[in-house]
Design brief:
The chain is an all-alpha fold. About 80% of the residues lie in helices and about 0% in strands. The protein has one domain.
Length: about 190
């Protein structure tokens, strides 16, 4: 369970990581205060959104118990597929060089919407939400900090690779959930 949650945290963190690379790329000088704020906002929202999704999922879990594994699989397949497709799309340089709390708030919400759906999947799969949000929040905080450093140092080379890796991880976790519930696979990592 812990390994699955950790890998989910890494997968979910990739959008925030990519945006953090962008923010680091635009810094003339590395600003540790801004780096910390980016990491706090992204880590905080990545932890908050699964909690909200989990609460929603728990409220309607009894109605979908017979096919809940398909719902979790579908959500993770959709989110992971979307991330993987976005990794291959040519995009303009959409990294904003400005820095404001309002902008961070919007970016944190935008990069954590996927985590809301994952929270629903956690409710369906009976994952301990408190452990999950702690792991996801810390993972995103650390990876966002690293993203700012990488962006400042190396540029945007890793942005699309991060999104692709995150998408693949989420798809594989969805497949694992489906195969476990269909009794094709019986692996409980950690």
């Amino acid at each position: 369970m812990l390994l699955t949650v950790f890998l989910t945290g890494i997968g979910l963190s990739m959008d925030a990581f990519a945006v953090a690379i962008c923010k680091g790329l635009k810094m003339q000088r590395l600003n540790y205060k801004q780096m910390s704020l980016i990491a706090i906002f992204f880590g905080g929202f990545q932890a908050l959104m699964p909690l909200i999704g989990w609460a929603l999922g728990r409220s309607f879990k009894t109605y979908i118990e017979d096919f809940d594994h398909w719902v979790a699989f579908g959500l993770l397949l959709f989110i992971g597929g979307k991330m993987a497709i976005e990794a291959f799309q040519k995009e303009d340089d959409d990294c904003c060089s400005c820095f404001s709390i309002k902008e961070l708030f919007i970016l944190a919400i935008a990069t954590s919407i996927d985590a809301l759906a994952v929270g629903i999947a956690f409710a369906i799969d009976d994952i301990n939400i408190w452990v999950a949000i702690l792991i996801i929040g810390i993972t995103t905080f650390v990876l966002s900090s690293i993203g700012v450093l990488i962006g400042h140092k190396f540029g945007s080379v890793y942005k699309s690779k991060a999104e692709l890796a995150g998408g693949i991880i989420l798809i594989l976790i969805g497949v694992k959930i489906l195969l476990e519930h269909l009794n094709v696979l019986n692996i409980d990592l950690f």
